[in-house]
């Protein structure tokens, strides 16, 4: 079946993404971008299907309107097992967090103060890692860390806490309802820094290159001194 709508509305069922998203908010999810091969990026809020073992619950009865809207793709089925979290790390990244500390991606500290639920510490009770995220997979976490069963709590499953990019339905781009909550869901500035594995190694590499001329000069001086003796 071909879904005709490129934006789909999802209702937030829990408090795991507070204060970014509140229970009962309706977000519009961009389903177009993944169709063109773009992959989720760090900092994006994404909706994804349960990879298996993240959600449990009985089937829910739907009325005719719900079934119709679900059929054409305007809204998800009440029985779709979808979750919404923030992408913290992508394939190839190494992510970690010490208990009571801050999340690091490829050794770089991630400043999450702009979106974490007030009073939350990135890893107040449950440290993790380091975890090397496999290619094609994502490490996701809720903004309300003390009320989110995210990647941290599913490391015993086959994906070891990560989800497949293929399970991503799309990126949440706008809070559309209620009207007083309307806002876009931009990627936080914290993710503007170079968090890639290669980028994390760059300062050390530059330090070695910078030290090389000094070493050569010292060796020349030592040779001259020896010749003078």
Describe this structure in words.
The chain is an alpha+beta fold and 229 residues long. Helices cover 20% and strands 25% of the residues. The chain has 3 helices and 12 strands. Strands 1, 2, 3, 4, 9, 10, 11 and 12 form an 8-stranded antiparallel β-sheet that branches. A 4-stranded antiparallel β-sheet has the order 7-6-5-8, with no helix packed on it. The longest helix is centred in the last third of the chain and has 32 residues, at 197-228. It starts with 6 loop residues before the first strand and ends with a helix. 29% of the residues are buried. Residues 201-226 have low confidence and may be disordered.
Element order: H for helix, E for strand: EEHEHEEEEEEEEEH
Structural class: alpha+beta
The count of helical stretches stands at 3
Largest sheet: 8 strands, antiparallel
* N- and C-termini, Cα separation: 87 Å
- Unreliable segments (pLDDT under 50, ≥5 consecutive)? 201-226
Number of strands: 12
Write the layout of secondary structure elements.
Layout: E1 7-11, E2 26-30, H1 32-35, E3 45-49, H2 64-72, E4 82-90, E5 94-97, E6 103-105, E7 108-109, E8 128-132, E9 137-141, E10 163-164, E11 168-177, E12 183-184, H3 197-228
Antiparallel strand pairs: 1-2, 2-11, 3-4, 3-11, 4-9, 5-6, 5-8, 6-7, 9-10, 11-12
